[in-house]
Write a structure and sequence with these properties.
Radius of gyration: 24 Å
Largest sheet: 3 strands, mixed
Structural class: mainly alpha
Order of helices and strands: HHHHHEEEHHHHHHH
Helix content: 55-70%
Shape: globular
Number of helices: 12
Distance between the termini: 18 Å
């Protein structure tokens, strides 16, 4: 029976084992150093979105400076406050607000909570992390799905809770992998720090859409100036200014690799077979109810923009992990 990093908690009474046997791993697993980290995919996600973050820094600085000139607070106060605001993704009261308002999650019912917490304790015991560090949430959905977000959020769909305990454990082990490898917090930070830049870009596009209302001469002048500015920036930055144009493709590739690494984490905890069963069943369910083209029938461009690998790729990697016995 796995032993958690906090022995004093072992004395607490555990709820009855839910239906659906969960295979247990014998031996002691104490890996408290792996509570949270950052693997190469998490770091890659941060690096890819660095240009967006820099653009956002410039946008927020400009807005803060204008507010200061108009008699508002000093620019460094507003700008610095925004720079430090990313730490709120690890503040649990703020995470609860995100879970409800942004992700549409709810607290589990007492029956859901009993099953969810029992399985979660078994998964985290195998990984050697503290189960109480994370917040467990439920999304009302008929799909088998789960999510890891911010620093402590773990959400599962209500349909996922109908799975046998062993299969639910495979799903939760995958989400725990996203947390322990840093995928969850890195993803949310990149979205947050890119937000001002993206809003400014949308504003520029909205203004550009009004060019057709100008005279022909004015439209030509504006277009020529914009083109000259783009060429100048590309030359001055040795083409790096064009990197954000490739970011969606590269970010999707990194996200797919992060999913495979989370699968590896679940397999490393002994849930490869259970996770493969979930993937196969859900794939067959999707194919039976699909009206549009399947993932295999989509074009190359669409597949390259997917944030998740196709199910056959995931099954191939999981089989290899299961065959290695790791």
């Amino acid at each position: 029976m796995p032993v958690s990093p906090e022995p004093e908690k072992q004395a607490e009474a555990k709820p009855p084992r839910p239906t659906g046997e969960l295979p247990l791993r014998t031996g002691r697993v104490l890996v408290t150093a792996r509570q949270r980290g950052a693997d190469i995919t998490a770091l890659g996600c941060l690096v890819l979105h660095l240009p967006h973050a820099c653009a956002s820094l410039a946008v927020v600085f400009g807005a803060s400076y204008c507010v200061a000139v108009l008699g508002g607070p000093p620019w460094w106060l507003l700008w610095g406050g925004w720079v430090l605001s990313g730490t709120l993704v690890f503040h649990q009261p703020c995470e609860r607000l995100l879970a409800r308002r942004l992700f549409g999650l709810r607290h589990p019912t007492p029956e859901e909570d009993r099953k969810l917490r029992f399985v979660w304790r078994e998964v985290t015991a195998r990984a050697g992390v503290d189960a109480g560090v994370y917040q467990l949430w439920v999304e009302d959905s008929d799909d088998v799905n789960a999510m890891a977000a911010a620093g402590h959020i773990v959400g599962v769909t209500s349909h996922s809770l109908r799975l046998p305990s062993a299969q639910l454990a495979g799903v939760l082990a995958h989400e725990l992998g996203h947390h322990t490898r840093g995928h969850a917090w890195a993803s949310l930070l990149t979205v947050w720090y890119a937000l001002p830049g993206r809003l400014a870009w949308r504003l520029l596009l909205a203004l550009a859409s009004r060019v057709d209302r100008l005279s022909v001469g004015a439209s030509i002048l504006v277009t020529a100036l914009a083109g000259a500015l783009a060429v100048a920036l590309a030359a001055a930055t040795y083409g790096l200014v064009l990197l954000p144009l490739a970011t969606p493709w590269l970010a999707a590739a990194v996200a797919r690799r992060a999913e495979l690494r989370a699968d590896e984490h679940a397999a490393g905890l002994g849930f490869a077979a259970e996770l493969m069963t979930v993937l196969r069943d859900e794939h067959e369910r999707d194919r039976a109810g699909a009206e549009g083209p399947s993932a295999e029938e989509e074009g190359l461009v669409a597949r390259l923009l997917h944030s998740h690998p196709d199910v056959h790729t995931r099954l191939h990697h999981l089989r290899a992990r299961a065959a290695d016995g790791r």
